[in-house]
Amino acid sequence: MCGIVGYTGPREAYPIVIKGLKRLEYRGYDSTGVALLNGGLKVYKKKGRVADLEEFVVGADLHSHIGIGHTRWATHGEPNDRNAHPHTSASGKLAMIHNGIIENYAQIKKDLSKKGYSFTSDTDTEVLLNFIEDIKKNNECNLEEAVRIALKRITGAYCILLIDQDDPQTIIAARKGSPLVIGVGKGEHFLGSDASPMLEYTKEVVYVNDYELAIVRPDELILKNLGNETITPFITKLDMELAAIEKGGYDHFMLKEIFEQPSTIHDCLRGRLDAAHGIIRLSGVQNNIDAFKNAKRIMIVACGTSWHAGLVAEYIIEELCRIPVEVEYASEFRYRNPVINKGDIIIAISQSGETADTLVAIEKAKEQGAIIFGIVNAVGSSIARISHGGAYTHAGPEIGVASTKAFTGQLAVLTMMALKIAKENGTIPDERYTKLLFELESIPEKVEALLANATAIKVIAEKYKGANDALFLGRGYNFPIALEGALKLKEISYIHAEGYPAAEMKHGPIALVTETLPVVFVATKDSYHEKIVSNIQEIKARKGKVIAIITEGDEVIPGLADDVFFVPPADEIMAPMLSVIPLQLLSYYVGIAKGVDVDKPRNLAKSVTVE
Ligand code: M6R
Question: What is the pLDDT of residues 550-593, one digit of tens each?
Fold first, then answer.
């Protein structure tokens, strides 16, 4: 939520900041702004996207060797020019950008108003900035000290970058709950919400931790905690190439990411799955193997698409490992005082590794003695760092707002985990274990085969693009895939969609069925096949339009459904990694047919770092 970029060094700052903002636009795109120092403080900001800002600044003097920039996902105050960041302080000397929410801003605003401060925006950010300036004035301290004092008095989440007209080479940055990466160059430093703005300049980065404050100058990076103690920055080498964050010839990141799945699933399995020797190497699980073996239960916390991966995992883990699993929305779990016993395992699933609700949920569970296992895509992210153990999904940067390749990566990791634990626990017969390992190994090839037929989905999408509503139904392992298909369609095409267990449909949603309602059945060949065929009959009897995702060789459903899409045969445990892909394509093609900006659908942001 909100992308932030900063630069200080010998180069022109504006082009670096603007390019960085374009890469971070997935985090929010309501309004954009930059602050530069050239003689005095210059702030340019505008409602809309980075491209709108670029148009707005044509002709302006943008020369500066220091700059901060922001792309916003609005929390406090509607998206408009006034509320766009950077904000400036009452003296006009300080400029600040912020990602997060200051929860006690209203009281601080009241106190500052009594002192005569007035505000030009509705944001919590402007309040924090003036609070800092007020502390600086009253305590006669430097800006760094004022920031430290202010941050100790606020509640909420933040990543802030500040520049000061009187100190024209320095950026002060701090974080709690919102990500901050600092790129270390030769005589220059780069700052960003993730590493993408600095990729072509440096591979050396520092992931700033919560409650840390950085004083960043061209030749100097000083890291401190809020107690003013100096911390040695831990430099990590980035393992990411520029090509990974570019569209590579595709029209949209979403389409690129859908088509990357044969290789991303392969990357996820590579070096871990050795079917020929019956081995799964997952060091994170191995290091905690006793905890998994002795676990009385596993709880999975996640949001959105990652939560759907958790639901699939519930079915797989219970089936193979015979350990009870509960799956929770992180946003509910964190507030509902759940019973957590020492030794309980909490699996947190997150693409970004920064989702605020998931992060706080596991922090709380950790305090209560749970063992935290993170399944995360973004390397070095907060969830990865606070987990006791974990496994990366290795899907590479996911930039399209709709999660696609991260989801199949999560399923691949969760399947490997379940198989490994089941083997250790002796809850899976050897023959089935071996068969499933080979099945898993063949998934990338099968994904490739079904993607070769993507145009068939485009034809279906054209046919149903005018729908106002849609129903997605599935049973067993495919029930969460029905939920995921509905979520994808909602976010990318703005069509109202509901996902339901197919049998549950009779308890209410069947009332929606008319001859214009598309009903998507995820009905691959599995142990529920006959049952779901009956459910299809029930819809057809009421004249609903049936689109079915089915297994090659199915001879029954093509005779019932209006449209079918075939996926290669697979064990039912693996089927979700195949059956979800036509649904990702369906939402993409419907979105495109309706003219939606599928990489940046309205109101959404890729990484939800506010609760
Ligand atoms: O980064 P996370 O996996 O923690 O994100 C969770 C959700 O915000 C995310 O899956 C969201 O639902 C996507 N837009 C779905 O496509």
Answer: 999 999 999 999 999 999 999 999 999 999 999 999 999 999 99
The two tokens of residue 236 are: 């990590």
* Gap between the terminal Cα atoms of the chain: 10
Residue 323: φ, ψ to 5°:
-110, 130
Contact indicator for 29, 71 with CB cutoff of 8 Å: yes
Same fold, 247-441 and 449-611: yes
Q: 457: Cβ below 6 Å to ligand 1?
A: no
Q: Which residue has the higher pLDDT, 246 or 472?
A: 472
Task: Write down the catalytic residue from 45, 176, 488, 606.
Answer: 606
Q: How far is the CA of 412 from the centre of ligand 1 (A)?
A: 17
pLDDT digits (tens, 9 = 90+) for 14-35: 999 999 999 998 888 889 999 9
Nearest to 237 by CA among 268, 209, 199: 199
Q: Is 355 in the pocket of ligand 1 (CB under 6 A)?
A: yes
Q: What's the pTM value of the predicted model, to 2 decimals?
A: 0.84
Classify strands 66-72 and 40-47 as parallel, antiparallel or unpaired: unpaired
CA distance 236 to 439: 36
Residue range 449-611, CATH number: 3.40.50.10490
Answer yes or no: is pLDDT of 536 > 80: yes
- Is 606 marked active-site? yes
- Element housing 439 (H / E): helix 430-441
**Distance from C-alpha of 54 to C-alpha of 33, rounded to nearest angstrom:** 10
Q: Could you give the CA distance from residue 168 to residue 36 in angstroms, rounded to a whole number?
A: 9
pLDDT above 90 for 75: no
DSSP E strands in 165-256: the ranges are 171-176, 181-184, 189-192, 204-207, 212-217, 220-225, 230-231, 235-237
Instruction: Output the six-digit token pair for 169.
Output: 């080479």
What region does 233 belong to: left with phi over 0, alpha with psi -120 to 50, or beta?
A: beta
Which ligand 1 atom is at minimum distance from the Cα of 606? 14
pLDDT of 112 > 90? The answer is yes
3-state secondary structure of 501: strand
The residue ranges of every structural domain in the chain are 3-243, 247-441, 449-611
Sign of the alpha-carbon dihedral angle for 418, 422, 424, 425 = positive
506-518 residues labelled b (16+ CB within 10 A) or e (exposed): eeebbeebeeebb
Lowest mean pLDDT across 69-78, 206-215, 274-283, 285-294: 69-78
Distance in Å, CA 196 to ligand 1 centroid: 19
Contact 400, 598 (CB under 8 A): yes
CATH T-level fold of 3-243: Glutamine Phosphoribosylpyrophosphate, subunit 1, domain 1 (3.60.20)
What is the average per-residue pLDDT within 242-263? 91
* CATH number of the 247-441 domain: 3.40.50.10490
Q: Output the pLDDT for position 334.
A: 86
State if residue 609 touches ligand 1 by the CB under 6 angstroms criterion.
Answer: no
The residue assigned the tokens 């060797």 is: 65
Question: Any catalytic annotation for residue 22?
Answer: no
Instruction: Name the one residue in this structure whose structure tokens are 């895509």.
Output: 377
Does the beta carbon of 304 sit less than 6 angstroms from any atom of ligand 1? yes
Tokens of 98: 């912020």
Residue type, 421: I
